[in-house]
Design goal:
The protein is of the alpha/beta class and 311 residues long. The protein is built from 9 helices and 15 strands. Helix 4 links the parallel strand 8 and strand 9. The structure holds NADP nicotinamide-adenine-dinucleotide phosphate.
């Protein structure tokens, strides 16, 4: 099968197209014929070798933590009726990924794919959708009527945060530059702050209940954002570590997104019900993955970038 893999850590040029044997599903695993994977910022961090302590990789490594595809075989202990179903998963960070024709994935991580969108596009949902859900529901406990500020709404996670916050009944303020403005509006944002013109901290007139920070900002910038949160509110960050403000009872939470088949099934249902949109900016082919990593390094990507493998 075709796969993109790297044998040494480094810049995007370490990514090489290779012809390798198909994996065999082990006990508890399903073999998936990959329809698509996506690019996530963590793919670049893993490739560069910055996460070797947290996620040691067996080299050569195939990247790609999101997968959509069709189950073609199962290993011991897995229900055979899975074969032929269309599925999604957020794959383990340090296992062989989905930038390949086939991937063997733990069957307990699989959710049925939504049916209202192309299977290729459904790959946009797993890791970014789960990050958004866990930030809003598990960490921020967002409720109807809450004022939620999404900082970095133009990215892959941001579109899902905006859509899910609206679904939960929140009033949503979102930062977006000119290139992402329309997509963030379509995701459901009530107010959009163009961060390229006005610093977000100056553009939020009234305090908010929740800030979801998706931008790699400085500790000082994050404290300034926390100051825009009402007493008793919550700051959730996927990037820069968040600290609480004990005097004002502002909680802080840092997201470490995890795979969860039940939550992913719920997200797929929200897509099918029309409550959650996929913001897909570009679709590339497998051989384009090194170029996609280069574009990511230049900040040239927005929304979700899908890597189509077997349509
Ligand atoms: N901790 C975890 O478990 C976890 C999980 C998922 C992601 N993350 C991290 O969370 C971050 C967001 O992930 P992602 O996949 O959404 O990233 P992404 O798709 O790479 O985000 C790119 C977007 O960031 C926006 N942006 C850049 N600088 C900004 C600024 N100063 N203010 C507002 N927006 C800005 C840009 O918006 P415009 O297009 O509007 O300019 C761009 O579209 C990444 O750093 C990622 O590594 C962490």
């Amino acid at each position: 099968m075709h796969a993109i893999r790297f044998t040494t850590y480094g810049d995007p040029t370490v990514l090489e197209l290779a012809e390798i044997p198909e994996p065999t599903p082990g006990p508890g695993e399903a073999l998936i014929r990959v329809a698509a994977t996506t690019f996530n910022p963590v793919d670049a961090t893993l490739r560069a070798g910055y996460l070797q302590r947290q996620f040691p990789l067996d080299l050569p490594h195939i990247p790609g933590i999101d997968v959509s595809g069709v189950v073609t075989a199962v290993g011991a202990g897995v229900d055979r009726s899975l074969v032929g179903t269309t599925v999604l998963a957020f794959l383990p960070m340090n296992a062989a990924g989905a930038a390949a024709d086939y991937v063997a994935a733990p069957a307990n991580l699989l959710a049925l794919a939504p049916t209202s969108v192309a299977l290729v596009d459904a790959a946009a949902l797993p890791s970014a959708g789960l990050t958004a859900w866990q930030a809003l529901v598990e960490h921020a406990s967002v409720h109807s009527g809450a004022r939620v500020l999404v900082n970095g709404a133009g990215g892959g996670v941001g579109g899902f945060v905006v859509g899910l916050a609206k679904h939960l009944g929140a009033y949503v303020l979102a930062t977006a530059g000119p290139r992402s403005r329309d997509a963030v509006r379509a995701a459901g944002a009530d107010e959009i702050i163009d961060y390229t013109r006005t610093p977000v901290t100056e553009a939020v007139p009234e305090p908010v209940d929740v800030v979801i920070n998706l931008v790699r900002n400085s500790a000082t910038e994050l404290v300034a954002l926390r100051d825009r949160i009402a007493d008793g509110g919550v700051l959730v960050s996927t990037t820069t570590p968040a600290e609480p403000d004990a005097d004002r009872k502002v909680r802080a939470a840092n997201v470490f997104a995890r795979s969860d088949a039940q939550q992913l099934t719920h997200l797929a249902a929200l897509v099918d019900g029309g409550a959650l949109r996929l913001d897909i900016s570009e679709r590339y082919l497998l051989a384009d993955l090194p170029r996609v990593h280069e574009l990511g390094a230049r900040g040239a990507l927005r929304g979700k970038t899908v890597i189509q493998i077997n349509a």
